[in-house]
TrEMBL record:
InterPro entries linked: FAD-bd_oxidored_4_C, FAD-bd_PCMH, FAD-bd_PCMH-like_sf, FAD-bd_PCMH_sub2, FAD-linked_Oxase-like_C, FAD-oxidored/transferase_4, Oxid_FAD_bind_N, Vanillyl_alc_oxidase_C-sub2
Gene3D superfamilies per the UniProt record, alphabetical: 3.30.465.10, 3.30.70.2190, 3.30.70.2740, Vanillyl-alcohol Oxidase, Chain A, domain 4
Membership in a protein family: Belongs to the FAD-binding oxidoreductase/transferase type 4 family.
This protein's record includes keyword Transferase: no
Full protein name: FAD-binding oxidoreductase
Organismal lineage: Bacteria, Pseudomonadati, Pseudomonadota, Gammaproteobacteria, Candidatus Competibacteraceae
Cofactors, names only: FAD
C-alpha cells in the first residue's frame, strides 16, 4: 500500500502530464510564498503550487482535482487580508501569474479584456497610455491581480465616485468547480436574458470556480485632481465636512485617518501636513481643471473652520505635493505591518458612521486598555478599518485569540447598526466565524446551495467563507 508521500507524488506526476513539470512546484520556498496572503496568521502547508499558462490547463486541472478529490486554492497577488488565498491543509495552489496578458482593447467601447493574472497597476498604466483610466485603486496596486480583485470585489480609495470592482466588470470567463468554462455577459452593457451569473463570481473568493479572463470598462482620466488634508477635532466634524464638500465639489476620494495612525507614517520619513495635531484627519480629492475649483474649495475651508469643524488644512499646489499628501493615508498599512495588526474591515451606512465609531471606540478602550487601536478608512462610502497592533512580547496566537474574543462584541454592535463584517477584504478564514452577524441562516443556506451547484465536490477553496 503506498504511503501518503508516494500517493502525493503519483498525483503530482499526473498533473505534470498536462502542465509543464517545471510549473508544478513543491519546494519549501514556493509553498511558503504561494501558500499565504498578507494576514500571516496561518502556517502555509500546500501540497504543491501549480502555475498554468492557459484556460485548457486550468480546465484539465479542475477535472483532475474532481476525479482525485484534490482541493484547489486560486491564487492571485496574495495581497488579501482575510486568509482567502491561504493554503494550509494540503491544498494545491493555482497561481494565475503566468496568465498575465492584455488580450483586447476596444477604444470605441472603452473596454479592455485581460487575463486574470494581470497586475492592477499594469492595467492602470495600459489605460493611461491609451488616454483612459481604470479607477479601482488601492495601495497594493503594484502586486494585486485583476482576478483577485474581482474575486474579492475590491474597493479602495476611489469608491466614493467610481464604485467597487463589480461596477467595472462587463464580462467574465470562469472555470467552474465542475471544470466547465462559462463566458458570462461577453462585455455587454445591456443584457436582459436571464440570471446574470457574472455577479455570483464577483466577490466569491474562489469558492465557485477560477476567474480566468475579464472584460472591464475604462473611463476618462481625472482632470487635474487636487488634494486637501484637513485636521478635524471630532467625528461629528468629519461627517459635516463630508456633507459640505460633497454637495459643492465632485469628490473622487474622501478618506479618514486618526492621529495615532498618522504617527506611524511619520516615523517612515513622511512629513506632517501642517503644524497642528488633531485627533482625526480627512483627505479630500477633487477634479480641479485649470485650478477653477480652488476658490470654491478654499471658501468651503473657511466656512468649515468658522463652524469649528476643522482646525487646520493644506491644499496641494502640484502633482508632486498631491502624491505626498496621499502617502499620509496610503502608507498606513505598510507602516504598521511590523506590528502584525489584527484587522477589522467593516461597513455601515454613511449616516451611521459617527454613532458606530463612538460606540466601538468605547468598546475597544474598555476591552483593549493595553493595545494601540488605529482607525482609518474610506469614510465617504462607510468603510472603516480598525487595526489593533500587537504589543511587543505578546505571542501571535495569544494576540489573535484576545482580538477574536472582542470581535464578537464588536460585530454585535455592528449588527445593531445594520453593518457588514467585511466591506472589501472578504470573509476568507478570518471572518468566517462571524458571518452570521451579516447574513442570517436562511441566506447562508442559499449561499451553500449556490456553491453546491458550481462546485458539487467541494474542491474549490474549501473552508473559506463558510464550512
Amino acid at each position: 500500500m503506498p504511503t501518503r508521500n508516494e500517493s502525493a507524488a503519483a498525483l503530482l506526476d499526473g498533473i505534470r502530464s498536462f502542465i509543464e513539470p517545471a510549473q508544478v512546484r513543491t519546494d519549501p520556498d514556493s509553498c511558503l510564498n504561494y501558500g499565504r496572503d498578507w494576514t500571516r496568521l496561518y502556517t502555509p502547508d500546500p501540497l504543491a503550487v501549480v502555475l498554468p499558462s492557459n484556460i485548457e490547463q486550468i480546465q484539465q486541472l479542475v477535472r483532475y482535482a474532481n476525479e482525485h478529490r484534490l482541493a484547489l486554492v486560486p491564487s492571485g497577488g496574495r495581497t488579501g487580508l482575510s486568509g482567502a488565498a491561504v493554503a494550509h491543509h494540503g491544498e494545491i495552489v493555482v497561481s494565475m501569474e503566468r496568465m498575465n496578458r492584455i488580450l483586447e482593447f476596444d477604444p470605441t467601447g472603452r473596454s479592455v479584456t485581460c487575463q486574470a493574472g494581470v497586475v492592477t497597476e499594469a492595467l492602470q498604466n495600459f489605460a493611461r497610455d491609451h488616454g483612459l483610466y481604470y479607477p479601482v485603486d488601492f495601495a497594493s496596486r503594484g502586486s494585486s491581480q485583476i482576478g483577485g480583485n474581482i474575486a474579492t470585489n475590491a474597493g479602495g480609495i476611489k469608491v466614493v465616485r467610481h464604485g467597487l470592482t463589480r461596477d467595472w466588470v462587463t464580462g467574465l470567463k470562469v472555470v467552474t468547480g465542475r471544470g466547465d468554462l462559462l463566458d458570462l455577459n461577453r462585455g455587454l452593457i445591456k443584457n436582459a436574458s436571464g440570471y446574470d451569473l457574472r455577479h455570483l463570481f464577483v466577490g466569491s473568493e474562489g469558492t465557485l470556480g477560477i476567474i480566468v479572463e475579464a472584460t472591464l470598462k475604462l473611463t476618462r482620466p481625472l482632470r487635474e485632481p487636487s488634494v486637501m488634508v484637513l485636521g478635524v477635532p471630532d467625528l461629528d466634524g468629519v461627517m459635516s465636512l463630508y456633507h459640505v464638500f460633497r454637495n459643492k465639489l465632485e469628490l473622487s476620494a474622501f478618506e479618514f485617518f486618526s492621529e495615532l495612525a498618522l504617527r506611524h507614517v511619520l516615523k517612515k520619513g513622511v512629513q506632517r501636513p501642517f503644524d497642528a495635531e488633531t485627533p482625526y484627519y480627512v483627505l479630500i480629492e477633487f477634479e480641479n481643471p485649470d485650478e477653477s475649483h480652488t476658490d470654491q474649495a478654499l471658501a468651503l475651508f473657511e466656512h468649515c473652520a468658522e463652524q469649528g469643524w476643522l482646525a487646520d488644512g493644506v491644499i496641494s499646489q502640484s502633482e508632486t505635493q498631491a502624491k505626498e499628501l496621499w502617502r499620509l493615508r496610503e502608507d498606513i498599512s505598510e507602516s504598521i505591518s511590523e506590528h502584525q495588526p489584527y484587522k477589522n474591515d467593516i461597513a455601515v451606512r454613511i449616516s451611521r458612521v459617527p454613532a458606530l465609531l463612538a460606540e466601538i471606540d468605547e468598546l475597544l478602550a474598555r476591552e483593549y486598555p493595553d493595545f494601540e487601536v488605529l482607525w482609518y478608512g474610506h469614510i465617504g462610502d462607510g468603510n472603516l478599518h480598525v487595526n489593533i497592533l500587537k504589543p511587543t512580547g505578546l505571542d501571535s496566537a495569544t494576540f489573535a485569540q484576545k482580538c477574536g474574543a472582542v470581535s464578537e462584541h464588536l460585530f454585535a454592535v455592528l449588527q445593531r447598526h445594520g453593518g457588514s463584517i467585511s466591506a472589501e477584504h472578504g470573509v476568507g478564514l478570518t471572518k468566517k466565524p462571524y458571518l452570521h452577524y451579516t447574513r442570517d441562516e436562511t441566506e447562508i443556506g442559499y449561499l451553500r446551495a449556490i456553491k453546491q451547484v458550481f462546485d458539487p465536490n467541494g474542491i474549490m477553496n474549501p473552508g473559506k467563507i463558510f464550512d
